[in-house]
């Protein structure tokens, strides 16, 4: 009987080379020694962890690696090649890396200073793709363009540059691109969507960049559309981008105000006080100049009105467009009678995101559902006039394709209404974001009895909306309604308590927004009681703790997530939770007590991976793990990976050594501005190294 070991090595090598998922390759390499050697010989992408000063631990068996990531070396954020605390010669370390990975053409590195870039590009002058990472501030003493001069001068084959997580000054880049015309002309990917910018690139700078890089296929840039600012982006800039870079297939133009992941004002009706200086005629000309577009993001942050006619041109001018995101665009779909218009005519779209559209209605959603029949992902944010009826009807129309949905900051869609609106695709949806706005559900949050009759009484019929669209659609939806209602046993399961509950068969990823002080416990009662395949959850807690009274409950409610049997990964983001890090005024809680509230009960979950962003005190730029938080995290006994996006004292970190199989822990100050004081008890490289040494000395059973 033949086995897989009888397959010729050439064929096995091709099979291994076709596997790109890192976890799958890691598992295969553990099967046998032969598989391990094949994995090493064919692996082309590698992320290095561990301490950079340990030269003897640099692996030398991955000779085929072309994509190397050095941005997660420890201590995170410390200069890789120019630290005054390191005894290692930077040239020696760089040389050892080149010897170990001679074929590298793609590099990601945390470049705290220009010296790091200068030394590394000397080792791999044939680099084609580079991603730079830096959350620390750029020193004012550095000359303009110092970070990029060596990179563009020495890497003549460079065609891909990502600066989205690299802090620099906007005036650093254009002069260097203009001074290196050959490399600039060869760039096909340029990501300048830097989240740490306050104002973004000015209009003139964008013109200079696009003039210097005429062959760009992908261009992402943070800018400012506010006409009150000097250098704002308007009609002239849009036309310049289209004229200078006609080969673009991916274009992201985002206002810096839209890059912060902060929930908007729920009482705002979607319109801003200022209009962007973008006209309908310019949009038509802009779309006409970019016929190859496949993905377009225009997140303007200022009103762009009456855009229906211009958006109709997308379908005829940009025939390959598949992904579209619009922010602060109004009049995108008028939905007059039964005739399709505006964005509803873009029938080739597969992903659509609509943000802060002040006049989008249920009828507009239905028109989009009719016209954009291939949508697999739909996001709606800050649209105050849409309701459960319109979104539910749209989900009915897109039942065969829609698998990813985001509903955020919509006044008429609380948590329960959002879940009811995606009811038609409940058995198909794989990715979901909702806001945990309970509107009275807190009172029944601890109830486990959610009956079938309750759900039928809560859901309103969408047929009245379809009757407005004409008898043909009314007949079709009545047919679908009969089909769904006759299949109740397929959508509901009988729990041990004798009550029916809805089952989300394919939901694998859940994202939640929740206001500070609110509880997570009503989530199951709101409709997410049975999710047998939910593997990953992201929870973002946002709000100002200052002035708030002590919560009535001891715990935020993480323990209520234990009912999801396959939940193993969590991202708990409290970075936008603001409070007092040190001494709180009398009668108020400091952040350590709020952390105890948020993390209480996390030990009851069977998590293997956790990303945690501690709350912050903006007045002192303090985002640190507290003593109660360290103790509660140490109760997660099944954790394998823990990444804390903040700082921590060394003796607090030692609590984590109680977790028996914990393999990978790292402090990452990946927010701007990252703390500069490397000699504090929270930031010392020596402290990080001692903790990692203690972690690595432990015997791990498996």
SSE topology sketch:
Blueprint: H1 9-17, H2 22-29, H3 33-42, E1 45-47, E2 67-69, H4 90-100, E3 106-110, H5 114-123, E4 129-134, H6 146-154, E5 160-166, H7 173-179, H8 181-186, E6 189-192, H9 203-212, E7 218-223, H10 235-244, E8 250-255, H11 280-288, E9 295-304, H12 308-317, E10 323-329, E11 351-355, H13 362-371, E12 377-381, H14 388-397, E13 404-408, H15 415-421, E14 431-435, H16 452-458, H17 463-467, H18 471-485, H19 488-491, E15 492-494, E16 500-502, E17 509-515, H20 523-526, E18 536-544, E19 569-578, H21 591-599, E20 609-613, H22 627-633, E21 641-644, H23 650-653, E22 664-667, H24 685-697
Parallel strand pairs: 1-2, 2-3, 3-4, 4-5, 5-6, 6-7, 7-8, 8-9, 9-10, 10-11, 11-12, 12-13, 13-14, 14-17, 17-18, 18-19, 19-20, 20-21, 21-22
Antiparallel strand pairs: 15-16
Helix pairs in contact: 1-3, 2-3, 5-6, 7-9, 9-10, 10-11, 11-12, 13-14, 14-15, 21-22
Organism: Gossypium davidsonii
Protein name: F-box/LRR-repeat protein 15-like leucin rich repeat domain-containing protein
Domain F-box/LRR-repeat protein 15-like leucin rich repeat: 313-415
How would you describe the overall organization of this protein?
Helix content is 29%, strand content 17%. The radius of gyration is 27 Å and the shape is globular. The strands form 2 sheets. The protein has a 20-stranded parallel sheet. Strands 15-16 form a two-stranded antiparallel ribbon. The protein contains 24 helices and 22 strands. The model is unreliable at 446-464, 480-490 and 494-500 (pLDDT under 50). It has 702 residues and is of the alpha/beta class. Helix 7 runs parallel beside helix 9 (203-212) and helix 21 runs parallel beside helix 22 (627-633). Among the domains are: 1-42, Up-down Bundle (Monooxygenase); 226-237 and 253-436, Alpha-Beta Horseshoe (Leucine-rich repeat, LRR (right-handed beta-alpha superhelix)); 508-695, no CATH class.
